[in-house]
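Hi all, long-time lurker, first post. I run a small reading group and we've been trying to get comfortable going from sequence to structure in the token notation. Rather than ask abstract questions, I figured I'd post a concrete chain and ask someone more experienced to write out its structure so we can walk through it together at our next meeting. Sequence below, copied exactly:
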Amino acid sequence: MANQGERDLIALVQHEQRGFRFILFSGFALLLVLAIMSVALGFYYWRASEQLQNTIARQRFDTRSEFDQQNNAVAAQDRRLNRIHDEIRRMAGAGAATLNDEGALRAAEAYLLRGHLLALAEENAIEAAAERAPESALRHFLTASAQLNTWSQRNNANLPQGATALPAELESAREAFEAAAADPAYAMRASAGLARLLYLEASGLQPNFEQTRCQAVFDAVAAAPPDSPHLLWQRSQCERKLGRAGEALRDYARMLASTWQAANTTRDEGELLLAMNAFHGVGTTLIVMNDAADPAVAEALPLARQACAPEGDALMAHALACLNRAVTLRRRLRQTPNEVSGTQENLGFAYLRTGDFSGALENAEAVEATGLFAWNELVRAIAARHLNLGDVEAEARRNVGFFDAVASFAPCEIKRLLNQDLFQEALDILSREHSRAEADAAVAACTS
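-- Answer (accepted) --
Happy to help. Here is the structure in token form:
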């Protein structure tokens, strides 16, 4: 009887132990499931937070870019209104001087050959002279010049993003210039106008600075009056973008030689703009060349030393000095900080050429504060990486990914602006933030 009781007690204890173990293991399993769910929810919320941060960053990127474009357009119109206001004050004080047909023709020539910004009286005189003239090359030339100037003033001389052809207004101007070119007496003047339109196509239509479009610019400039500063700029821009750095440097230097001294005293915005573009072109092309022994560089250095006043004899010191002179002229032109950074961002490449990553990052951060530029964000990412600034590098790389395509970075030109090892770093960043296939295809298309 006692044995049966013991057996019953043992069975009861075993049953309770099994129940306790079941409860214990069930608790462990539940805890494990809860832990897995917590990890999964944590990962989900982390991913959602990261996506939200990226979405907010992208919206901020797009908003800044759009704001900068609108601000630049408003500033350009404000500068034009200021010029008109000053002219009206002068006319009110001295009496309105009416230009005759010869004066209108000279004003149109200055507009096309030197990038002269037409005064209100000159605009009116050109339009009035075109209306008075009989059907002739003069009428066609003045009409086309007026149409080109009107469009440029309204659009800040820029084609809309993503444009695939010239607007109808400029196509009409092209037809008028071509009609004027049929008269030998106006052929060279009309070629200058056609060069302006062809350069708009080469620089504004995608893919920009294509060989065939730039060749059309070269042909038009060759048929126009020689050594015209504005035409030299159009030709040198195409030469630099196509990798013909030696030819570009010679043309920029010729342009600089005829503008830099006047820039010290003149208040004419067209002349200041010419000089600014010349300083910018010489400085950037010296970075590209990066070889003091090259004949084109050796030929340009004495002028760069005189006009840019570098601190030291190093080649990159000349490049930095010329670019800084361009920055100064942009400010004298009352450009927005974002527009000034169009030159200032190029300083970063000169710093990278000399291994000055701190200087490159400091410049890139200053530029980033004024706007988002494809080249600048790439320079910022490279410099931050070498300085072990992970947060800055991550932000810059994210911005690199926000630009529409690898083509936005002009990889062929970056290849010429950077040392080979740094170009490989740039290519790696572009490949990771966009795609390796896209980056490889862009580099494969490089002509040099």
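A couple of things your group might point at:
The chain has a mean pLDDT of 88.
The CA atoms of residues 148 and 170 lie 6 Å apart.
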